[in-house]
Specification:
two-stranded antiparallel sheet; 2 domains; 15 helices; binds fe (ii) ion; about 325 residues
Amino acid sequence: MPALKQRLEKAISVGHLPTIQGMLTDLEQFANDPHATVEQISEHISKDPSVSVRLLRIANSAYYARAEPVVDVQESVLFLGVAQIRIVAMTTRCVEAMCPEDQSGFVWTDFWRHCIATAHFCRMLGRSFTYPGFNPELNWMAGLLHDVGKLVIAMLAPDSFRKVITKATEEGISFQDAEHKYLDTDHGALGGWYLERQSLPPVVFEAVRCHHKWDMAVEKKELPAMANVADFLARQKGFGNSGNMELVMGPFTETPAWQFLVSNLALRGDPASLQLQLDEESTKIAELIENLLPNQKRVVVKRSAPADPSEPAKGSPPPPSSNPSSNLSVETTA
Ligand SMILES: [Fe+2]
Ligand SMILES: [Fe+2]
């Protein structure tokens, strides 16, 4: 642990590891400026092609089920809003900045699939409860970065990462148990420490630090517990692979973290309707994840020729009585 921490400290100080906070600073002005216009935000976003293309993909994804395709960045800014744009920008920049060399066949794109799914579920869980101080962006950030400690290990000590993966598989133990056995630390501790050095909100680095032991959180346990349940859901529903082969058994409502949440916060609705929502949204979430990842197939929403000759031509607004999505199709291109 001390050796890894020293290497981590040095890597941050000489810029060998990306600074998460730096990825968002250019967008802070828009979050804090109520007078910023859509044109100004769009012009700024357009300078970042990676973010722009993802905004368009997401605005046109089945998740939002729009009747009319969004055709440019300005329209996507208007449709998605600044909060969602910040989340897309944060996710895009993290995924692109932190993708280590392949380690023994470990697929880092699958790692990010797991993290994005966890972010989505973490935000969804936050919205399922009524409690003071809820911030959807912080919930997303905590979910997205909950396993960032694994990236830190892989980037600073690839041999150690490879050893943990191999030993966890050979010995049939969890990733965390293998970390403690062979590294004398775990990715929660390292990830939390890495984010703390970057002045991220304490609620985020505490959630990252304690996502496997949420009950050890020093102050608020809500976000660590939500990150824990979100990680459980992402693994149970098979989104990506974080290298944690521990079996995910039973419904999420039986996890200690969920039990803590329902005992301490007011749940909107009931667990059964949340479960239904989780099941219904799984396909849409899968598409959302693919649209956030780099070098993926591009999702294109196309409007086919009207089946009914009396329908208006392509590009014209549909009549009020028509089903607007019936003649839309989503195509993917390389
Ligand atoms: Fe983890
Ligand atoms: Fe995880």
